[in-house]
Each structure stands twice: as C-alpha cells, then as structure tokens.
Design brief:
alpha+beta, four-stranded antiparallel β-sheet, elongated, transport, unfolded protein binding, protein transport, SecB-like_sf, translocation
Length: about 160
C-alpha cells in the first residue's frame, strides 16, 4: 500500500503544473441609455471610453476565480449615449506553479481567455440597446500585466499573488 502511495506522489510530481478551465460565466451585466430615445435622433459621432479591470480570488483547493470587468461609456458630443458593463468570470484549476508564474497566469493568461466572451456579451448588450456594434479590439493582457508589475516595482509594492 505504501508503495502505491509513493508511486502516486511521484507521478503527480512528474506531471508538474496543471491548468484547466472549469467554467466560464457572466457574473454581472449592466446597460443604461440615459438619453434615449432622444439620443437616436442625434447625429452619431461616438467617443468610446473603455475601462478594463481584473481581479482574482482563491477558492477551495487549487481553484481560482478570475473576473474580467469591461466598462464602456459612449458619448456623442457631450451627451452620454450609453453605459455598459460586463463582469465575465471563470473558474480555473491551477496547480504546481511558482508564485511568479501563478501571478502571471491569473493576471494575464486567464483574462486573455475571458476577453472574447466579455467582448461578445458587451456587444450583445449594446446592439440590444439599438446602438451600433462596438467590436472592441483585442487586448494584450501580457503587456498590461508587465506594465502593472513595473508600476508596482517603482512604487515599492509587492506584486499581487493568489491568496
């Protein structure tokens, strides 16, 4: 029996890091068109402001929730045409990573997986509000993560790791 247990532990060590997506879901959505229907009668000359945020938390065992939030405010002239927000979340099983690799996985790799789902959900909200599709450009989460790590090092903060 001890031999089997030792073989099982050795097999797990040989496997190294593990990553698997368990679930993708919409955590929260919001859409507001405060100037409708008047906004539809104006010339459509939009300016788009996008706010992007990620957060993560540890769940039981080696499971982690990552939430990607996309908030968009679209104005035409000085008038707010609409405000839309999507919180796209995922549950990931992540094992056997060093702290720095875990931080990168949670801060860049997982949001990269979630982004197409969040973009589609946001686009669906906007078109249901009778506005033209947004079609947000792809986001380089690796670059954003690197910028955040550089900012934290300059400020003397410790990088965020999974808790």
């Amino acid at each position: 029996m001890t031999e089997q247990a030792n073989n099982g532990a050795a097999a797990q060590e040989e496997q190294g890091a593990q990553f698997s997506l368990q679930r993708i879901y919409v955590r929260d959505v919001s859409f507001e068109a405060p100037k409708s229907p008047e906004i539809f009668r104006q010339e459509w000359n939009p300016s788009v402001a996008l706010d992007l945020n990620t957060k993560q938390k540890s769940l039981e065992g080696d499971f982690h929730e990552v939430v990607l939030t996309l908030s968009v405010t679209v104005k035409t002239g000085e008038e707010v045409a609409f405000i839309a927000e999507v919180q796209q979340a995922g549950i990931f099983l992540i094992k056997g990573l060093e702290p720095q690799a875990m931080s990168h996985t949670l801060g860049a790799f997982c949001p990269n997986i979630l982004f197409p789902y969040a973009r589609e959900a946001l686009d669906s909200l906007v078109t249901r509000g009778s506005f033209p599709a947004l079609m947000l450009a792809p986001v380089n989460f690796d670059a954003l993560y690197a910028q955040e790590m550089a900012r934290m090092q300059q400020g003397g903060e410790a990088p965020a790791t999974a808790h």
